[in-house]
Design brief:
The complex is a heterodimer of chains A (94) and B (89).
Chain A lengths: L6 E8 L4 E6 L5 H14 L15 E5 L3 E8 L2 E8 L10
Antiparallel strand pairs in A: 1-2, 1-5, 3-4, 4-5
Chain B lengths: L1 H12 L4 E7 L5 E6 L6 H12 L9 E5 L3 E8 L2 E8 L1
Antiparallel strand pairs in B: 1-2, 1-5, 3-4, 4-5
The chains are: A alpha+beta (94), B alpha+beta (89).
Chain lengths: 94, 89
C-alpha cells in the first residue's frame, strides 16, 4: 500500500474492525476505523430496488476537496487508503 | 418547492446512465424519488451521509461513492438536504 501514488495514510482492518496495520495520517486511527465500520454496516442496507439481484458494492470512495478515502474489502480484510486527489481534480485509480 | 425539486429530479434523471435518484431531508425523511429507487431507502441514505461526515467534521460534506462493476451510488449532503444518485457505469 506504501506504493500507491498520492497515498498519505492507510488502515488495514479485520472483519471485526480491529486495526491490523496502519501508517501515515491514519496511524492507529481507531476513530476513523469505527466510522468506516459503521458506514460498511449501513451499506448493506442500501436500496434493493435500485440494485437488483442483491448485488453489493466493491469499492467505497469518500471524496473531500483535496483528498479522498478509498475503502475496499479483500481477503476478509478492510483496506482503507487516504490519498491526495490528482492535480486535475480526478481521483487517481487504485 | 415541490415543483422545483420535481424539475431538479427530472434534470438529474435525464443525464446519461442515471437510473434513479432520491432526495432526503435532515431527519432522513424522503423529499422525493425518481426512477427505480424506493422511498424506503431515504433513512439509510441520510444515515450514510451523517456517518461519512463524522470522518472529518471540520471539512465540507464529502461526496460518497459506492461502486461495483456495473453500478454506482453517489451521495452528497448540501445544507440540510442529501441527494443520492444511482447510475450505471
Amino acid at each position: 500500500m506504501d506504493r500507491i501514488p498520492g497515498q498519505i495514510g492507510y488502515l488495514l482492518l479485520n472483519e471485526d474492525g480491529a486495526v491490523i496495520s496502519s501508517s501515515g495520517d491514519l496511524e492507529n486511527d481507531e476513530k476513523s476505523a469505527d466510522i468506516v465500520m459503521g458506514l460498511i454496516t449501513l451499506t448493506s442496507q442500501i436500496d434493493p430496488d435500485a440494485l437488483p439481484n442483491h448485488e453489493g458494492f466493491k469499492k467505497l470512495s469518500i471524496k473531500y476537496e483535496g483528498h479522498s478515502y478509498i475503502i475496499c474489502l479483500s481477503n476478509r480484510k478492510i483496506h482503507i487508503v487516504k490519498k491526495l486527489n490528482s492535480v486535475d481534480g480526478a481521483a487517481l485509480s487504485v | 418547492m415541490e415543483k422545483h425539486l420535481d424539475r431538479v429530479m427530472d434534470d438529474v434523471l435525464s443525464n446519461p446512465g442515471v437510473t434513479s435518484c432520491v432526495f432526503v431531508d435532515h431527519q432522513g425523511l424522503c423529499l422525493g424519488a425518481r426512477g427505480k429507487a424506493s422511498t424506503e431507502c431515504a433513512g439509510i441514505i441520510g444515515a450514510i451521509a451523517d456517518q461519512a461526515a463524522k470522518l472529518e467534521p471540520q471539512h465540507k460534506s464529502p461526496i460518497i461513492v459506492f461502486e461495483n462493476d456495473t453500478r454506482a451510488c453517489i451521495i452528497q449532503r448540501n445544507g440540510t438536504i442529501t441527494g443520492a444518485i444511482f447510475k450505471n457505469i
